[in-house]
Amino acid sequence: MGGGKVSNIDIATNGSIIPNDSLLDIIKSCNTRIRISDYNVTPDRTKKLINILHEHEIIYSVYEFAGGCGRWYNCGGVDLTNYALTDNETVRQRYDSCAFRRCLTLERGQLARCSRASDASRIQGFNESESDYLKLSDFSDNKELRKALLKYYMFPTFMEACKYCNGTSSDDMIEAAVQL
Ligand code: SF4
Q1: With the CA atoms of 141, 30, 65 and 110 taken in that order, what torsion angle do they form, in degrees rounded to the nearest 10?
Q2: Looking at ligand 1, which atom is closest to the CA of residue 120?
Q3: Is residue 30 a part of any domain in this protein?
């Protein structure tokens, strides 16, 4: 995989699991980067993981949610129904400036452009648009699936969920990891 068409793979972890040696070898051979979301729940393990990644020369980054460096956005709650009335241009701008616009998420066999959108219609009670998602079971042919995946990724447009969301362009931040 390392020399193929996949340029790199990112794995997100909360840093609580230390991969064994054979897994570390695979990670390294596949040009994989590790992104540690540090919630300060298992600081010793996270430190150990960082040391091991360093020793194995595996590229990693640390996002310090609990250390004050992480940024959490207030994308809004279930009460954002009025956004459904905003014009498409406003929603498009919100989507285009959103940090999560390419945070592809696969849930219930559907690929969405962001994790919030995956659940928004069920939680907020609006009707989702079919074009917002890629339903993987619609493709029995791998070539067709590949084409659809490329198109979905290369030509992103805002989703119905973006009408019910603050996005990430406002200064409305919330304190990271306060539930700890
Ligand atoms: S639903 Fe919200 S978080 Fe997701 S891409 Fe749209 S604006 Fe961004």
Answers
A1: 0
A2: 1
A3: yes
